[in-house]
């Protein structure tokens, strides 16, 4: 079983439902509806422990726990967390969690990971102190992410226990069983736009995600990733370019125009950010109103 979508068959579209300020039943409704719509190929949650908007004391579900529940209630969608904060969980524990979700889903996991929240995002930064989690500087965070990617891939693919002694992570007799169903392992998506994070993506990512912002900025960062790949002798075309684009329920043409610009800029993995409250049949609306009218940009194998 492979962990990759066919590389030469044109763009893929997915949805993102931030699991904050919503009820479980609302998210489940959208995902189960999307699971029956072929034009929607993947679905994503975020990884925050407290709300980023709205009532600061409102509900927020833990991403990987919710992902496992949704994996058990869907059959077709590829699914993941966009993106996991590497600051929240030790990498060996995260590898075990992700392998479990891949098994529960029948081999549908897309493994998204990044350094974690920016130091200048107060709403996100507060969740670390609130949960007793350390918040190291950016250099530490990026170095830790690179080590985590190495550890996680080794745990998923190596059959014998191993030791790892890095600058930030130390393991003795590390082993992951059961392994993920996907072989050699689930695709690794690294999210972020700072140059140090792009260097990690150049070395470790199967996909790279631009977490919003302008299309011009996304294209500039994608070009920077190309350059970093070339510096280490990797073919930039091996890394699928992904982007999160917010959906306007009132101005769908604006959303379609932004998607067209992203596709023209080389982004083939499009994640439609759906904001709560979710309208009735929002997944069908997204397919019929946003994705299908872009058929001139979509090719088949």
UniProtKB/TrEMBL annotation:
<dbReference type="InterPro" id="IPR036661">
    <property type="entry name" value="Luciferase-like_sf"/>
</dbReference>
<keyword id="KW-0288">FMN</keyword>
<dbReference type="GO" id="GO:0046306">
    <property type="term" value="P:alkanesulfonate catabolic process"/>
</dbReference>
<keyword id="KW-0560">Oxidoreductase</keyword>
<dbReference type="InterPro" id="IPR011251">
    <property type="entry name" value="Luciferase-like_dom"/>
</dbReference>
<dbReference type="InterPro" id="IPR050172">
    <property type="entry name" value="SsuD_RutA_monooxygenase"/>
</dbReference>
<feature type="domain" description="Luciferase-like">
    <location>
        <begin position="23"/>
        <end position="263"/>
    </location>
</feature>
<dbReference type="Pfam" id="PF00296">
    <property type="entry name" value="Bac_luciferase"/>
</dbReference>
<keyword id="KW-0285">Flavoprotein</keyword>
<protein>
    <submittedName>
        <fullName>Monooxygenase</fullName>
    </submittedName>
</protein>
<keyword id="KW-0503">Monooxygenase</keyword>
<dbReference type="GO" id="GO:0008726">
    <property type="term" value="F:alkanesulfonate monooxygenase activity"/>
</dbReference>
